[in-house]
Write a structure and sequence with these properties.
One of its GO terms (biological process) is lactose catabolic process. Keywords: Glycosidase, Hydrolase. The protein is mostly beta strands. The chain folds into five domains: 199 residues, Galactose-binding domain-like (Jelly Rolls); 89 residues, Sandwich (Immunoglobulin-like), CATH 2.60.40.10; 275 residues, TIM Barrel; 99 residues, Immunoglobulin-like, CATH 2.60.40; 294 residues, Distorted Sandwich (Beta-galactosidase, Chain A, domain 5). It is 10% helix and 36% strand. Bound molecules: beta-D-galactopyranose.
Length: 996
């Protein structure tokens, strides 16, 4: 293999912002000047190393007929069925030696060639520019055999002036893309490495005297409501006069000269905000070109500890978002992205951090239009240097200064017109250093209208906003003391990996209590699983290692609130419920409505109420709530309700959209609140209480109790015609990724009573659970007592070589066709580890397909994730009761079950009714696989064929926490060994027919 030091390919390792006929960075503009879309079919050839690329390929006469075809935009590793390499995933670490600026000899290099015909009139005047919106990681470009530039900065726009190389008629464009370059060292974001030309390639005809750059700064004075439009143009002197028009505002101005900026008073204007994204269309035109800008008037300020927009403090209900699609990688699909953003809006998200690079430009158009506060982040991350103590970090190496500055220029200039952008972020996890300082200085000078963000600056040298990731609430509160007078955000929190994050509500309460805390951004929106298939054709979403990478970070790339295929996880509903901008609080004294929107009163909402008894509506209506202005609250009386009927009474109030909006239909529920109104006991029953039946030995050595059968150990075998196996107590749940990964310390190792911080570092919960043998408990029957009123068993559960155990007593009774189980669990002394769950496990026939229940729902809920849950009657397919996470793990738990009914074609209905014990009822999980099966599989397709439906009645479950990247389950939500009990009735009903 030729050495990378060969002079011809030295540019790959050059530390340079880019070279050749680069055009100065400028705004992404909607212009009427002609463009030629160069996307579509290109010829393609992949070489295993840069030095092997065919030198003749840049020659316009080169015969590429033997090459393959590829579509642009795309990533070649997602094309070619593996012939062109595979994606590779690493988080922090570099997949090549840390030897900057050098890269491995094995540097996959893809030559892309295409021919195009220049529109005939383009050479009559003006310039021709060639635009690249994104290619990874470096591209050398030839047009008609002339080298026109080297494009660097994978997620940044670059335009090259090719006027002198383009020719009338046919043209040949060649782009040689190298997967690795010196730039890979500053593009170490936590994501797949996906080489290729993945954003558009466009040819632009720039008119002489055109409006090359336009910046409209649309300010609005919050005190007077008057707007000022400051117009800054970059164009030659002969481009003047330039007209600026906004018919809606009656604005009509003519700019006669090239003053640095023209400030136009536009009179009273409506503000732009994420809640009310009011845009005005402004047309900037001269004789040569017309540019249309959708602008929004708003003022962003940092005043003391307040980050204000339009004079009001922000509350960021945000999410980190990558450009990602499970089939196309980072190729942007506007309709799909729009759908995803509507889903965000419908879940009360109001902010996006473009982690960790400027997104496709259309994302920002959508954010302007739909309403999102955006932190636009630069394409910069050098995290892998941390593994070597940050030695040689480019952030503090003067050789890299121009690269850093160029990246800041290209982000700010491209995106500066967007009202949605409320801060510029220097990048992510790049340590500290003078180059970051230089970026911040340049950005502040260029755009004093937006603050600068950078999380890794813990000494506040470069930033206007203090930012942290995955800090505990205690650490955040501490920051309000150590950084007084500064606004604070969590740019990443509540890591959405697998089942979790729990504890969102604790953050929200902390933000509420400390005005300097302006909210945060969930990590992250979507799993980055890549759709692929096993050798036998079974489709699945791949994560690190699935493409045969030897060096990777596994499933850490799947940590979204929506799965790779876009399916929302339960966390999305939980987040929506926790951060709702409309807080409805129900109390005996009345209802309080708190409008925490940035903008807009509650006049768009209908406050419907429903009174339910045992989950069935008995009355409903609409509350008369006068419109509440943003930032205000009001109260209204509760409706008059007839509380006489026997049963459990609940009042539910929903705030729903009265009319459709651009992001949701009429009737969309923004928030739900509930008030328990108590339980009315039924009067004395006329029916005589049936006497319990005796347990009697059966011929097979077991026992019969009414229609229930037990084996010799007292384990349930059947109820009537139904095989219902087990009923034993288990402590095991399939570890969630928050249970099994431990990036931060644990509360568990510290004294739960005293711990207020994060606790101490230590093994993950799953490691500790396994060490304690909770996945291999052995039963020892202590007593089995068949008696006149039922069967009682008492057994110990303990692990090999463990002195700790639990004592389980189960009392089975049969009366009036019903099997009752009372269960008591007592831990021995000496436990030093939490328990995942205390569950009664029953295996039922696989044919059960539908579940309906009265309890909490509709989604799953856990001790630290229950705000979205309400009490009511729900139904769902068994398949939909658990979540197909990228890695199989515990899911689907629903607390406080009252009644559950399972139905399946040809099977008798099976129902469970619970009675509270000391005020508590068990929760339940219904799943097609057992906790042990989930534990053993690394992907959903590795789960064995389902042999039955597993019902877990959980006397208790451990919380979820966020420890895969963040704090553990908080002490108050942890399941420390304690006595628990439950009382349940099982009933087997009639056989369901064809309708199941
Ligand atoms: C952060 C990082 C993100 C992501 C996250 C964990 O440190 O900024 O890019 O890696 O952790 O999923």
């Amino acid at each position: 293999m030729p050495a990378t030091a060969s002079p011809d390919i030295a540019y790959i390792e050059e530390i340079s912002p880019g070279s050749g006929r680069r055009v100065a960075p400028r705004a992404h503009l909607d212009s009427d000047s002609p463009v030629l879309d160069l996307c579509g079919d290109w010829r393609f050839r992949l070489y295993p190393s840069a030095g092997e690329a065919d030198a003749a390929a840049s020659d316009p006469g080169f015969d590429d007929s033997g090459w393959d075809a590829i579509d642009v935009p795309s990533h070649w590793v997602l094309r070619g069925d593996g012939r062109w390499g595979r994606p590779a995933y690493t988080n922090v670490k570099y997949p090549f030696p840390l030897d900057p600026p050098h890269v491995p000899d094995a540097n996959p290099t893809g030559d892309h060639r295409r021919r195009f015909v220049l529109p005939p009139d383009w050479l009559a005047g003006g310039r021709v520019w060639l635009r690249f919106d994104g290619l990874e990681s470096l591209g050398r470009v030839w047009l008609n055999g002339h080298e026109v530039g080297v494009v660097r900065g994978s997620r940044l726009r670059q335009e090259l002036d090719v006027t002198d190389q383009v020719r009338a008629g046919g043209n040949v464009l060649v782009v040689r893309v190298h997967q690795w370059s010196a730039m890979s060292y500053v593009e170490d974001q936590d994501q797949w490495w996906l080489p290729g030309i993945f954003r558009e390639v466009t040819l632009l005809h720039r008119p002489d005297a055109g409006l090359d750059d336009v910046w409209l700064r649309a300010d609005r004075d919050p005190a007077t409501g008057r707007g000022t439009l400051t117009v800054e143009l970059s164009c030659p002197p002969e481009a003047y006069p330039v007209r600026v028009r906004c018919p809606e505002l009656g604005l009509e101005a003519e700019l006669r000269d090239a003053a640095a900026a023209h400030a136009l008073d536009v009179g009273p204007v409506e503000p732009w905000s994420a809640d009310v994204p009011r845009l005005y269309e402004v047309v900037v035109a001269n004789a040569a070109e017309t540019v249309t800008v959708r602008t929004g008037f708003r003022r962003v300020e940092v005043v003391g500890d307040a980050w204000l927009v339009n004079g009001r403090r922000l509350r960021l209900r945000g999410v980190n978002r990558h450009d990602f699609d499970p089939i196309e990688g980072r190729v942007f699909d506007a309709p799909k992205v729009r759908e995803a953003m509507l889903l965000m809006k419908r879940h009360n998200l109001n902010a996006i951090r473009t982690s960790h690079y400027p997104p496709h430009p259309v994302l920002l158009d959508l954010a302007d239009e739909l309403g999102f506060w955006v932190i636009d982040e630069c394409d910069l991350e050098t995290h892998g240097f941390e593994t070597n103590g940050w030695v040689g970090n480019p952030s503090d190496d003067p050789d890299w200064r121009e690269v850093y500055l160029d990246r800041a220029h290209r982000m700010v200039e491209r995106d500066k017109n967007h009202p949605c952008i409320i801060a510029w972020s220097l990048g992510n996890e790049s340590g500290q250093g003078g180059n970051l300082a230089a970026m911040a200085t340049w950005i502040r000078r260029r755009d004093p209208g937006r603050p600068v963000h950078y999380e890794n600056d813990h000494t506040d040298r470069y930033v206007d906003v203090v930012s942290r990731m995955y800090a505990t609430v205690e650490e955040l509160v501490e920051l309000t003391r150590t950084r007084p007078g500064r606004p604070i955000i969590e740019c990443e929190y509540v890591h959405a990996m697998g089942n979790g994050a729990g504890g969102i509500a604790t953050y929200e309460a902390t933000f509420d209590a400390h005005p300097a805390l302006h909210g945060g951004f969930v990590w992250e929106w979507r799993d980055h699983g890549i759709l692929t298939a096993t050798a036998d054709g079974t489709p699945f979403h791949a994560y690190g290692g699935d493409f045969g990478e030897v060096f990777h970070d596994g499933s850490f790339v799947c940590d979204g609130m929506v799965l790779a295929d876009g399916t929302p996880t339960p966390m999305l509903a939980e987040y929506a419920a926790v951060v709702t901008p409309i807080k409805v609080v129900l109390a005996a004294e009345g209802v309080t409505v708190d409008n925490r929107r940035h903008d807009g009163d509650t006049g768009d909402l209908t406050f419907g109420w429903v009174h339910e008894v045992d989950g069935r509506a008995v009355a409903s209506g609409v509350l008369a709530v006068p419109p509440v202005a943003a930032g205000d609250s009001t109260s209204a009386p509760l409706p008059t309700l007839d509380r006489g009927a026997a049963g459990e009474h609940w009042l539910t109030v929903t705030a729903a959209l009265a009319d459709r909006t651009p992001w949701a239909p009429a009737g969309h529920v923004v928030t739900t609140a509930q008030l328990p109104l108590g339980v009315v006991e039924p009067g004395a029953s006329a029916a005589p209480v049936a006497a319990p039946e005796p347990a009697v030995p059966s011929d097979d050595g077991g026992y019969a109790l009414g229609e229930a059968r037990f084996d010799r150990w007292g384990r349930l075998l059947s109820v009537g015609p139904l095989p219902a196996l087990g009923g034993e107590v288990t402590l095991w749940r399939a570890p969630t990724e928050n249970d099994s990964l431990a990036t931060r310390g644990s509360y568990e190792l510290a004294d739960p009573a005293e711990t207020m911080g994060l606790g101490v570092d230590g093994p993950s919960s799953a490691e500790r659970w396994r060490e304690a043998g909770l996945d291999r408990l052995q039963p020892r029957l202590v007593a089995l007592v068949p008696g006149p009123d039922g069967l009682t068993t008492r057994y110990l559960l303990a692990a090999a070589n463990s002195a700790q155990h639990l004592t389980v007593e189960q009392r089975w009774r049969w009366s009036a066709g019903t099997l009752q189980l009372d269960v008591d669990v007592q831990p021995s002394a000496g436990w030093t580890v939490t328990w995942p769950r205390v569950g009664v496990h029953l295996r039922l026939p696989a044919g059960y397909a539908e579940a309906s229940w009265f309890g909490t729902g509709p989604g799953e809920n856990y001790a630290d994730s229950r705000v979205a849950a309400r009490v009511g009657r729900f139904s769902a397919a068994v398949d939909d009761l658990t979540v197909r996470y990228a890695v199989p793990q515990e899911s689907g738990h629903r607390e406080a079950l009252r009644e559950l009914r399972l139905a399946g074609q040809g099977l008798p209905s099976f129902s469970v009714t619970t009675t509270p014990v000391a005020g508590a009822r068990p929760g339940f999980v219904v799943a097609r696989h057992s906790a042990e099966e989930w534990t053993a599989a690394r992907h959903p397709h590795e789960l064995p064929r389902s042999h039955g439906v597993h019902l877990y009645l959980d006397l208790a479950q451990h919380g979820l926490g966020s420890r895969s990247c963040g704090p553990d389950v908080r002490p108050e939500h942890a399941l420390w060994p304690r006595p628990v009990a439950a009382s349940v009735l099982f009933r087997v009903g009639h056989v369901d027919r064809a309708d199941g």
